[in-house]
Amino acid sequence: MDGLQRGSAAIVGVAESDLGAVAAEMSAIDLMAQGIHRALADCGLGLRDVDGLICATAQSRTSGLALAEYLGISPAFVDTTILGGSSFMFHVAHAHAALQLGLCKVAVIAYGSTQRTIGRRHASVREYNPYETPFRPFLPSTAYALAASRHMHEFGTTREQLAAVAVAARQWALLNPVAWEKKPLTIAEVLAARMVSYPFTVRDICLVTDGGGAVVMTSAERARSLKKAPAYVLGTGQAITHANISSMPDLTVTGALASGRAAYQMAGLGPGDIDVLELYDAFTINTILFLEDLGFCNKGEGGAFVEGGRIAPGGSLPVNTNGGGLSYCHPGMYGLFLLIEATRQLRGECGARQVADCEVALGHGNGGVLSSQATVILGTATTV
Amino acid sequence: MDRVSQSPLAVYQAYLDRGELAYQWSPEANRVVFFPRVICPFTSSDRLEWRVSAGLGMVYATTVTHPREGAPYNVALIDCDEGFRLMSRVEDVTPEAVHIGMRVKFRIHRPDGDEPAYPVFAPVEGA
Question: In this structure, how many other beta carbons lie within 10 angstroms of the beta carbon of residue B17?
Answer without folding.
Answer: 12
